[in-house]
Sequence to fold (684 residues):
Amino acid sequence: MTNKLGNLVLDRWVEGDGDGTTLASAVNGTPVARITSEGLDFAGMLQHARNIGGSNLRRMTFHERGDMLKSLAKYLMERKEEIYALSTETGATRSDSWVDIDGGISTLFVFSSKGRREMPNDHVYLDGPPEMLSRNGTFVGQHIYTPKLGAAVHINAFNFPCWGMLEKLGPTLMAGVPAIVKPASSTAYLAELMVRQINASGLLPDGALQLVCGGVGDLFDYLNCQDTIAFTGSKSTAEFLQQHPRVIGESVAFTAETDSLNASILGPDAVPGTPEFDLFIKEVVREMTSKAGQKCTAIRRIIAPAAVAADLTAALGNALGDVRIGNPANRDVDMGALASQGQRDEVRDRVRELSQQADVVFGGSDDFDVVDADVDRGAFFMPTLLHCDKPLNSSLVHSVEAFGPVSTVLPYDGLDEAIELARLGEGSLACSIVTNDNAVARELILGTAAYHGRMLVINRHCAAESTGHGSPLPHLVHGGPGRAGGGEEMGGVRGIKHYMQRTAIQGDPQTITAIGNRWTHGADEIDPGVHPFRKTFEQLAIGDTLRSEPREVTLDDIEHFAEFTGDKFYAHTDEEAAAKNPFFEGRVAHGYLIVSLAAGLFVEPAFGPVLANYGVDDLRFLTPLNHGDTMAVRLTCKQKTLRGDSGYGEVRWDAEVTNQDDEVVASYDVLTMVATDEHWASVQ
Ligand code: NAP
Fold:
């Protein structure tokens, strides 16, 4: 008898009760593993995640969690061949597995890097600037994000057992939330192997990750308002789970990524003979055949101008005829098997359903050759192209998802009709447009974007570097409205926020500063005792403030700056012309002169712990500075971000330039890198 898959429960590997269900190889039908989660203590798993995993993760800062993800990604990368070897059993070719395995691991790298670059080395994430809520500035508001205090339950689809798990795990762990992962049964053996590697790495704290191979038992009965469900699968399962009394009663956050009748639209300009026509053929064939079409983002509807539909169908048929189907371990094979024989039967049924309103113009037969495999034992399916004559009057082509290498050509007359057809999908994950006419691209995007989570415009200029129609990227959102589930995942830091609670906090600026570790206008200004540039990263306190001496800005200064830099814009050089400008009364100082003079006022020139200025943020010139005016600067240590063991940290300074009447002339953040105690001691 084959082995039972392990369940990772309370940080121990346990087998479920009973014999379980046998999982078969997609390639030859032989048993790969048995699966059961009978008898697991689901209530205990949730408690363990909340009490142990959550507490452990929340002790870490965003950057520490980012470092952890990076180490994990490296660890998995070194061991990926073991996963690749097993992945073949799911029917995946090497390039299918690359999307699943390397693609999955790379999402961890991206979340690690985005989290460390765009989030603070802290436990709280500030959402936007403070809101001034009172006349005198003593009462302000700030939106913050903190990790939810529950568990994230991930329910994944069968098609990408690794990527599907890691694209959810990355943002969850970055947020500081523990996960309970439930892979789809048919390919759970691959997810289990990867979780075994993750667990063996020892890189995650106790309780951060648990695994259920099989059903989720009574787990939903113990959910509470701090838990999150991230679901990928069919619309019907999502609807069923969303109606669980506990999900409704406790308002459990539920993200659903479901089926999708994704479209690709060929622009009217992309006639045969243009590079775009050829790109379209390539894109459609790739989307139909990679992962044997078992991609939630695959092109199911080919929306093409009626005038070229016949040429297009012929070209697609030719290209599909060249696709070699067979044993995915054989490097000559272009397309492997579906994930199971059950899945193959399901796709067959769906094609039959589609055939009520569309004609099969390529494939659709059970009689085809396979390379290095037995067609009767594996879950092979021939790429199948359909053509629907009257797509506006045919509901099935817009609603029946054949989750395999199946797509339907839908001819259109005019862009309005193309838009209407795309919308008939009633909400999709992805839509691509292949055109070299940017006016067409804009019209189609504005007409259909509200129905899609991601849209891609392909033309001859970007095709070579394009990541393709079907690739969700960790930097961009994945999800879609309506039928696609209405959820959203990934999208960089956006994806991390789904596992956190946004809270509006209100109070005195000093309180808001203390909570967010970012100095807020109106909070205390601390006298640093010495020039703040003489302090190391550790010595600097948020609120340390330098107020400069005033300095007059003379006409000579302005003329000198104009001459020296070559910036002789009339507002600085021509009194009469400047006075005609509605904003000025005469010649004014250059904004960049003000910023440069400000630096001259606040900089401490001697060798010190401030290593470099790497930019300014949010620079605004608010009041013109006339010659004869005086200016002074306030520079306040606003936010500190330690950069791991690099020997320095980033220090953001709040800079405000005022004139003799205390009016704000310019405001901006100065960004510097400041040495740590250790580094500073080593270089003196
Ligand atoms: P499914 O039957 O809905 O299964 C999806 C997941 O839900 C599996 O892990 C499944 O576990 C689990 N599940 C099913 N019933 C459950 C229940 N009563 N309680 C808890 N969990 C339950 O979908 P599928 O047919 O396997 O997957 C294919 C579908 O997923 C396609 O329609 C495809 O479009 C969609 N998909 C969407 C995305 C996306 O990102 N939007 C990505 C991939 C796939 P078991 O396997 O153990 O039943």
